[in-house]
Amino acid sequence: MLKDYMLIDKIPVPIEGEKNILALVQKAGIDMPTFCYYSELSVYGACRMCMVEDDRGNMHAACSTPPKAGMSVVTNSARLRKYRKNILELLLANHCRDCTTCEKSENCRLKELARRFYIEDVRFPNGKTEPERDESSVCISIDHSKCILCGDCVRMCNEVQNVGAISFVGRGSKMEVGTAFKVPIANTQCVGCGQCSAVCPTGAIVVQKNVTRTWEAIYDPNTVVVAQIAPAVRTGVAKELGEENGVIAAGKIFAAMRRMGFNHVYDTTTGADLTVTEEAEEFVERLKEGGPFPMFTSCCPAWIRYAENRHPELLPNISTCRSPMQMFGSVIKEYFEHNEKTAGKRIFSVAVMPCTAKKYEAIRPEFRRPDGTDTIDAIITTQELIQMIREAGIDFKGIAPESSSMPFGGTSGAGVIFGVTGGVTEAVLRNVEPDKTYSALQQIAMSGVRGLEGVKETTYQVGDQELKIAMVSGLGNAEKLIRRVQSGEAFYHLIEVMACPRGCIAGAGQPFAHSAEKAQRAKNLYTTDNMTQIKRSEANPAIDEIYAKYIGRRAHSLLHVHYKAKKK
Amino acid sequence: MNVKEMYRRIDGYLDTYGREEKSLITVLQAIQEEYSYLPKEIFPYLAKEMNLHEAQIYGVATFYENFSLEAKGKYVIKVCDGTACHVRKSAPILERLRNELGLSASKITTDDLMFTVQTVACLGACGLAPAMTVNNKVYASMTPEKAMDLLKQLREEA
Prior knowledge:
The complex is a heterodimer of chains A (about 575) and B (about 160). Chain A has helices spanning about 20-25, 80-95, 110-115, 150-160, 195-200, 210-220, 235, 250-260, 270-290, 300-310, 325-335, 360, 380-390, 415, 425-430, 440-450, 475-485, 515-530, 540-550, 555-560; strands spanning about 5-10, 10-15, 50-55, 60, 70-75, 135, 140-145, 165-170, 175-180, 205, 225-230, 265, 295, 345-355, 380, 455-460, 465-475, 495-500.
């Protein structure tokens, strides 16, 4: 059968189920300028940068026009160029142009397109408004004066995450992205997932930084700085620091951090192994006791906050396990505070995370220690780590990889795959499956736990029990699943929830990436798992040592947490 | 304001107009009809009942000029500033009313919640220009002086 074709710049391009002309244009090898188009979000058609001209001289927004067989459009013409330049000039006319001090400077879409279209001068007077910042959240910071009203954040927050903390408020020239009654973002349903900042094309929504506090701790001779890096971080740094996209950079990160002055560097994977051990035990216990089901995973702080805001009735269903970061954080503080080498010094515990919501988790009262200090003193995101490595001037490409510090040096493959959706489930299954052979591992991997889909369901047979399991990423997907469970339509023993679509590898603390790059990050974690001799968390000797030497009988108080419904 | 009573009334509107997203504007209009503005308390309640987000509803309420988020006065005075009324000098009437009551384009309601002064584009009573309404009752062929007399009368009534 003859395929349907469209002519893009006179080149025939087959129509293969694309929903809009923009997808065809991209297929033709043209990088279309856009501000408001993301394939994961609904089509908005606001920025008008992706206009194309047909052979009758009519203009169409490529993102919101379906392809038609036989249609012929050009993506570049005198008119289109003039219009695009005009749009950019108008956007720049009331935009802050202090690019040297803007933290989005290097990744600013507005700046990029302004350079690409060679805007030399803006004919209109600069009507930029004074910075109008909302610094109420510890996760994100909002500056309305840098907003171009593309609506990406609004659609992310509403459509993908179902959080709905922000919306367009007001009308016309007074319109802005805001909260209900313009209250500070911290007082809304915001869960701190930061996905709004991940899609923001300018510096209007950015992640809050802890870089300065971390440097200060490093510079202080009386402070011992102990760091842990999350599984997903090793897949996120390489490209930004000049490496190939596929490089797994854990060893280089350890080496670079030591050079920067971190005293001890550990791998949160060890914490994940603790979590798997505790969570599997809790899961087996619930299977024996007959519930409560479903048991929800507890490692994602944005999910915890979402449940507190929207589904306080589900809090008893959430595993009491602390997140890997918090478990490991407890062990780190316990160890160094009772170690004679570090006696009398301040212990500053830093966690390098792909996540912005961790910044809120770190200051939660539940994790305050008896002496009033927090278990984790500072969270720096992958992006902040990259910034610190650049600031220190370290040649990341040339640095020789090193291992993590001792004593908590061992990691397992089960722990490292925590960074991708389905990973926690796979790690728990490896633990509860009595068959510890290689073929059993393969069977678990093939059981439907892998893949980057937003919702995965599977069943797994352990002994005479058939376990029903669901894995969701993206809070909107979680909400849909919860409704099915609450209406009795579906039943699961275990539900793994990750707030960010695809899991931590695509967390808002990671550098910006397109879907192919995110898939590569997931692949990198599975490769790391393949390359690790120890596959199961409970087989990690470091875990035995932690239990025997540092935790003893205090496992419950150090490794578990009970979230309680907030009074409204 | 009795919040429970308000929620009961809103339930009534929701039963009549439906709980789908598309009914939002109709429901908001019904609430405004009842209370002359959109009380803050309705937002979380509607969000829950209609399965929307508070910010979303706030976005709709601030988009349309007709929705008000502030309580209105006991007497809502609408001065017509449509073409016919404008050329027959509605502006001095509006100015006089605002001066007398200490109001402006941004502050439209007196602190004692007695009077609200608004302009409307056209009341559809061009033959009576310049016209104004007080709580939907039409007053024809107004002058600033007549408006003052009317204000005096309303104050005595209250």
